[in-house]
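Listing S7. Sequence submitted for prediction.
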Amino acid sequence: MTSLLAAVAAAAVLALSGAASAQPAAPKGAAVKSDSEIAAVRKALEQKFPGAELGSVTKTPYFGLYEVQLDNRLVYTDAKARYLLVGAVYDTETKINLTDERQRKLNRVDTALLPLDWAIKKVKGTGERVMYVFSDADCPFCAKLEQELKGVDNVTIYTFLFPIDSLHPDAARKSRMIWCAEDRAQAWEAYYDTGALPNNSGDCDNPVSKTQELGAKYRVNATPTLLFADGSVVPGALPAQRIETELRNAEAEAKKLAAAKK
C-alpha cells in the first residue's frame, strides 16, 4: 500500500510540478498568517496521530501543501490535515528530488559533536576531506563500501563500529576484537581484505556499546550510513564516484553554513 501511495504521489507531483515556479510574491502579513496556519495544521496532526513523533511543519510553494516531518519521514498534507500525500516531490526543470534534498537538510548531524575518540581513524593521502561511517563488521554492504573507499583519496575516514545485533549477532564480538588491536585501522582493513581477526579476546576498554547508542541517537537504522562535512546523512554503499560528489558538495555546503554563522 505504501509503495502504491508513493507511486501515485510521485506521478501527481510530476504532472503538476510546474506550479512550484509560478507562485506569486507573498503579500505583507503573509508570514503571520502562515504561522497561524502552520500551528493549526500541527494541532490537527497531533490530534489525528497521537503519540507520533511530529517534527517540522512547513508551508511549501506548491499546491498549497504543507511539508510534515512525521516519524522521521517527510509527508505532505492539506490545510485541514484531511489528506496525506506520501511520496517524493520532483522539480522537472532541475531534475532534483526536492523531498530527498529537504530530508537531508532536516536530518543533518552536528559533526562537531561526534565523539571521534570512539571511531577508528584512517587518513588517506592529505586527509584534507572528512567523512564518517557507521559500519557493521558482518554487513555485506559495508564490505562493498570498503572496496569503493579504496578508490577515494585525500580523505580522513572516521569509522564508528555499529553492530546491528538483530541481524548480525557476532558482529559486536568482532568489533571489539578489531578495536582492541594495536593498529585498529590496519585491523579493520585486514578484516575486510582477508576475513582475519586480530589475535586478542576483545576484552579491552572499547566504545562498541556506546557507538550503538550513538547510532540510535542519530537514527542510524542501516549500515553502512555515511555522514559528510556538512552533517548530511546518506545511507548505503555508495560507489566511489558518488562518494567524491558527496564529499565535494558537502565541503562547499559546510563552508556556506560556517559563513552564515559569522
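Caption to Listing S7: primary sequence and predicted C-alpha cells for the chain studied. The mean pLDDT is 87. The two ends are 47 Å apart (CA to CA).
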